[in-house]
Specification:
Layout: H1 3-16, E1 31-35, E2 40-44, H2 59-73, E3 81-85, H3 91-103, E4 109-113, H4 122-130, E5 136-141, H5 152-160, E6 171-177, H6 185-194, H7 198-210, E7 214-218, H8 223-236, H9 243-257, H10 262-275
Parallel strand pairs: 1-4, 3-6, 3-7, 4-5, 5-6
Antiparallel strand pairs: 1-2
Helix pairs in contact: 2-3, 6-7, 8-9, 8-10
Amino acid sequence: MTPDALTRIAEALERLAPAPMPAPDFTAAQAFLWHASPDRLVPVARVSRVDIGLLVGVNRARDTLITNTRQFAQGFAANNALLWGARGMGKSSLVKAVHAAIAADHPDLKLVELSREDLPTIGRLLTHLRAAPAHRFLLFCDDLSFSHDDQHYKALKAVLDGGIEGRPENVIFYATSNRRHLMPRDMIENERSSAINPSEAVEEKVSLSDRFGLWLGFHPCDQDQYLDMIRGYCAAHGLSIGEDQLRAEAIEWQATRGARSGRVAWQFFCDLAGRHGIAAG
């Protein structure tokens, strides 16, 4: 056999069974992204987030999540959390802002984000996090939901219940979703109507959300909250504008979008800041 053939065989074997991921350096950053194929934790030098003081209309959820996260960072008991509800109302922004607020006093608290598509690999990720007991990890999955034929939710139970090995003591799981039960209502109703044992078919999937100790609901904001968000952004970035002009332009903006939310408020502010020659990031 020629040397070239041996090289190709070796490369093929490497693709089939890649070398184990080296031990991550968790001192390299405060936040990391988990990627699979190959497995790796990528440090994030600068997390995209807003200051927690700029999040308006979510006071109860903010205070509850801060308390829960602080307990976890201090090594005490804490719950996994599901942030669910209206689009654009700051669910993922709150998770990142709370992490920043708590990590300021507890630098060993790390934020690790994984995508829903990588849930089947979560067992391997937990193995790496379990092996770093000097750190505590806030495992974060944004926009979590499941379709009728999606089996990824079964992998999530490894985090929420932990199986016989148990969830690592240094890991907590926060997820955001537009859906309270992580799946469409028509899918739940279809399970009830078509399954041989309807109650069991629904229970397996709906009960997934019951495994979160905290449910934090986010609801559409009213006009006063929407305007307060924009005023907060203006103050934080030093943008001066008359109240009457701000109010008129902001209301016109949300009318063209057909909705009010924190995301719409930020988008209006970006437009306003650009017209006033101010950078917003």
